[in-house]
Amino acid sequence: MCPGDKAGIESPPARRAPGIRTCALGKAVQEEAWPSGTGAEEQELTDTVVWVTGASSGIGEELVYQLSKQRVSLVLSARREQELERVKRRCLENGIIKEKDILVLPLDLTDRSSHEVATKAVLQEFGRIDILVNNGGRSQRSLVIDANLDVYKELIELNYLGTVSLTKCVLPHMIERKQGKIVTVNSMAGIVSVPLSSGYCASKYALRGFFNSLRTELTEYPGIVVSTVCPGPVQSRVVENALADDVTKVVGSVRGQSYKMATSRCVRLMLITMANDLKEVWIAEQPFLLVTYLWQYMPTWARWLSNKLGKKRIENHKSGVVRAIYIFLSNTYQS
Ligand SMILES: NC(=O)c1ccc[n+]([C@@H]2O[C@H](COP(=O)([O-])OP(=O)(O)OC[C@H]3O[C@@H](n4cnc5c(N)ncnc54)[C@H](O)[C@@H]3O)[C@@H](O)[C@H]2O)c1
Fold it and tell me: Which of 126, 144, 180, 314 has a CA between 20 and 30 Å from the CA of residue 99?
């Protein structure tokens, strides 16, 4: 943690002395050096055109609410137009943006043939795309032995290929302008391997690999920033919507989420990430962060701990009381 970081988010990096360092954003850590000499707050995103996928729920929905309090243009995408219209109304009621600043653009990430047309629609409306936030996605709660192969196909189609496809549509525009930000909501499950989420982990590992490669390919375009955001458990509908053992089955309703990070806090930290062009951030409360550190730096210990905690999680899943584990330590493995 940075010295003086006790106040967490209330002591933003802008106040800190120049220099490269590894900092904590309050309880949530970004494993990344701050850019030297700077340290922007989210207001620096003013006057940008931001396209958010998965804007109808959870992290994406909260992200557009917080962005709508600044002077930005927003494109809201997800599959359900009605839900997007609801989110738009709230943005207009509580934010400072006007009707002309917000475009509802229904989009199915798995329908890759529609992505080019959607990109053109955004460019036609606002003339540019400054920030693409690849947020839409789904999780999984099923054992490898039980999960139908279609579950894996769907998770790769949506979380991985859908994101890659949209990014590829937007990229030529950013390259032409030599600027832009591609922010992808990955997960701690892109670093930590978790039982019951094998397909989800695979899709998020794949995404992390893809964007790390893309970042290197873009070195001659320093104005294009590729950011990967890895949250731990955050309050949203991600578990409710998670695929079970068949692609037609979802987990459904889940019990309390109070142990998870508040969506608003996660999003605030994401905005700071975006304003500061950070390459990779880990956003989580303890002990989730600690487990991620173990996976990164002490994989042998991480595997030992995973076996202990994972066993319990699997037992609970098998005995049909999987919801109980959401409150206990085995949630170390949440998406
Ligand atoms: N909430 C967490 O604990 C957590 C942790 C780590 C990462 N994440 C990631 O955060 C992102 C947002 O998830 P969330 O937690 O807000 O969950 P959520 O279920 O509340 O929201 C998911 C969003 O993705 C959209 N979506 C789903 N399938 C889609 C499709 N085919 N096409 C377009 N949009 C689609 C949904 O409509 C919704 O808007 C996901 O990528 C998820 O993997 C969440």
Answer: 180
The answer to whether residue 160 is catalytic is no
- Residue 247: DSSP 8-state: T
Q: For residues 154-183, give the mean pLDDT.
A: 98
ipTM for the assembly: 0.99
| Single-letter code of the amino acid located at 125 | E
**Domains in the chain with CATH codes:** 8-333 (3.40.50.720)
- Dig out the tokens for 316 from the structure: 């609970």
pLDDT in tens, 252-289: 877 778 889 999 999 999 999 999 999 999 999 999 99
Whose alpha carbon is nearest atom 16 of ligand 1? 58
Element spanning 61, H or E: helix 58-67
Which ligand 1 atom is the nearest neighbour of the CA of 204?
43
**Tens digit of each residue's pLDDT (9 = 90 or more) over 286-303:** 999 999 999 999 999 999
**CA-closest candidate to residue 122, choices 135, 107, 103, 108:** 103
**What spacing in Å lies between the alpha carbon of 319 and ligand 1's midpoint?**
27
Q: Compute the distance from residue 232 Cα to the ligand 1 centre, in Å.
A: 13
CA of 187 to the centre of ligand 1 (A): 11
Residues 43, 25: contact at Cβ < 8 Å? no
Q: Which of 152, 200, 205, 326 is catalytic?
A: 200
35-55 pLDDT, tens per residue? 444 567 777 899 999 999 999
> Tokens 């999780």 identify what position?
139
Return the percentage of the chain with pLDDT > 90, whole number.
75
